[in-house]
Fold:
Amino acid sequence: QVQLVETGGDLVQAGESLRLSCAASGNIFSTNRLGWYRQAPQKGREMVAIVTSEGATNYADSVKGRFTFARDNAKNTAYLQMTGLKPEDTAVYYCYWRGLLSGSSQYREVWGQGTLVTVSS
Structure:
C-alpha cells in the first residue's frame, strides 16, 4: 500500500506564499504520475501541477508562473510552492500518485486526505 500525507495548508492573505508538502510511504516500485489537484467549494476537482514519468511538469493555466512543483526523491516528498496567492486559489489541495507497487504489474492510484488552503482578500 501507498500512503500520502499532505501538510502545509493554512489561512493566508492575498499575495502571500505557502508551501505544501506531500510525504509518500509504502512499497513503491515506480511512479508514473505525481502531483497536486485541488477542489474549491461547489466545484469539481482540478489538476494543479503534475509530473509525468518522462519528467515533464504540467501546470494548470491559472497557476502558471505562480506555483512550482518540486520533488525530493531521497525523502519521498513532493512540494507545491505557491506564490502570489489569490482568493480563487482557496481550495482543498490533494496529493496524487499513480504507479506500481513492488511485486505488482497493475497501476494504482492513491490520493492524500487533502489540506485546506484559504486565501483571504
